[in-house]
Each structure stands twice: as C-alpha cells, then as structure tokens.
Amino acid sequence: MDEDVRLRRPSEKVITVATQFEFRLKGANAPEGELDANDLLALVQSLRTVAMSIGRSETDADRLGRAPSRVHQVANLVIGLAPGSTKLLVRRAGAGEDALDFDLADEEGFDATFEKLVRSIGLDHRPDWVSDSLSNAAGELVSALRRAAPEVEFKVDGLTVQTFDTAALRPETWEVAAGVSTELRTFIGRLYSANLKTHRFQVEDDAGNQVALPDVADDSGLGPLVGSYVTVTGMPVTGADGQLKRLSNSRILALTHAVAERGIPDSVPLGDILAAAPGIEPGGIDGVSDDEADAFFAAIGL
Predict the structure, then answer these.
(1) Distance of alpha carbon 233 from alpha carbon 160, whole angstroms
(2) Beta partners for 154?
(3) Rounded distance, CA 43 to CA 108, Å?
(4) What integer is the mean pLDDT of 101-121?
(5) Global pTM?
(6) Spatial contact of 215 and 249, defined as CB atoms under 8 Å apart
(7) What is the rounded distance in angstroms from the CA atom of residue 113 to the CA atom of residue 189?
(8) Cα distance between residue 62 and residue 70, in whole Å
C-alpha cells in the first residue's frame, strides 16, 4: 500500500486538522483572558459573517438564500479566549468524528482565504478578489477589532504573521458603494427598446419588471432577439427602494429554456375560474323563484 494512503479502523477517532488562527488583543480594557461582553459578541458575529461568506465562495454556493449544509461544515467556527493579553482563538469546527482524516480542497481554501483576508485587513487594503459581500463582512470585523483593542497580533498555527494598530484601520476601505455592485447578476425576460446606435436595450420579465441595459457589450447580431426571451448578465445598479434598475456592461444571450418557447401563461379572469369550478351553476336554483331567493338572503342578513 502506498505510504501516503492509510486505512482507518472503524473504531478509530479521526479529527480533521484545521489551521489555528489567533488574534492577540493587546491593550484591551479588560483583565487577561477576559473581554467586554459587547466587544466579544461583535467579534464573534463579525467572524461568523466572514466565515459564512468565505464558505459560500469556497463551496461555490449561491451568495443569497439559505446556505447548503456543506457551507456550514466548512465555515462553522470554534472560538475561544485564552490569557496573555487576551487571545481570541479561531479555527474551523470541522465535520465531526465522521470527517475524513485530511482536509478537502474547499476546507484548505477556506483557511487560506481567511488568512489572506486578515492580512489585507492589517494592511488596510481591499484586494480585487474580495467580493462585495465579503467586503461588507470584513468591514464589520474591522469595526469589532477597533473596539476590542488598540493593537492586534495575528498568528497562524502559532507563528506571528502580522501586527497592526487598529486605529490605522479604516472601515471605509471595505465599504461598498450604495446602489452599485461589482458582482454580476442575471435577469431573464423579453428584450425590448433596442437602439443599436447607442447600444441601449431594455428587458422586461413576465411580472412587468423593467431593467435598462445602457451599455451592452458586443450587441452585434442581437436585432433578431428583440421580442424574444433572453438571459442578461451584468453589474447591477439598484434604486433607493433596493429594486434592480439597470445592468451595466451587460451581455445578452438567447434563452434556450422551455420558458423561451412558451413564456409564463397569461392570467386567467376570475369569472372563468369560477365558471370552471364545481358547485352551484350560475343562473339561479331550480324550483326557487327570484323573490323567494331574495327573501331568504334578506332573512340571513345578506
């Protein structure tokens, strides 16, 4: 058997090895090994938000909606306090006793990305690879660190990799411009209002939501798609109400899904629904005159 491969006995307890991160909070306004409850809660919550954002990215999960179980397996953290200028210890919780005895690629990616993000925080620099959602989470962590201590020493598996003054950290470095996102979004609807000279289009879904496409990339050959269902991908711009208004630098593709052929069925009038429903037929009740019916409804208060 290859020396790099070993079998695990059924009764053997295996624990996934996770990188141990340490935030040494120097000068915190609390005794060693202790931290103000509000400061601790802010740190734990911000670390959890960062972890979930990284977990979604490393497992290729959608950034919105309920996170799949794999995201939780990768991103769940174990956080503890230790004395010595108050040390905040952070590591992945792992998947428990049934975990493999080696880290999977997304788990290794999580640890590497977490370390790179904290290094970037210490340098007060947002790298291009940081998504808007992760940037927002990093901003929360910056604010929490600034509240917790004036100086932070960051260690990875016991080795100091960075020390920084929290007063020099700027939360605005991680702010995302309101209404504008660098993350791509996809919209499906019918293509309208084509102006090939100005490269401006408009798309509308079956619910009546309209999205402007002010600068379509490579719009040659899109003329035949006007009036057809298309998929549009671009950088979203939202209004004050949070609704999608425009997709900038967008690309348009013909939709090959079945909805492109049939669309969403038109609404059915209420009268047609009632007429097709089982029950008393319209036009009165056999053997009962209109006067008798009126008297009955008057007696019961209708």
Answers:
(1) 43
(2) 23, 162
(3) 23
(4) 83
(5) 0.54
(6) yes
(7) 36
(8) 12
* 62 contacts: CB under 8 Å, gap ≥ 6: 56
3-state secondary structure of 178: coil
- Helix locations, 123-245, DSSP H: 132-148
Give the separation between CA 43 and CA 61, rounded to whole angstroms: 25
Phi–psi pair at 74, nearest 5 degrees: -80, -40
Chain segment 287-302, per-residue pLDDT in tens: 667 777 777 777 776 6
Identity of the residue numbered 53: S
- CA–CA dist 22, 152 (Å, integer): 10
E strand or H helix that includes residue 4 = none
Q: Is the pLDDT of residue 237 over 90?
A: no
Q: Which two tokens stand for residue 263?
A: 């669309």
* Residue 190 host element (H or E): strand 185-195
Q: Rounded to whole angstroms, how far apart are CA atoms 165 and 145? A: 10
**Are 22 and 83 a contacting pair, CB within 8 Å?**
no
Q: How many CA atoms lie within 13 A of 6 on its CB side?
A: 9
How far does the chain reach from its first CA to its final CA, in angstroms?
Answer: 86
Residue 202 has a pLDDT of 85
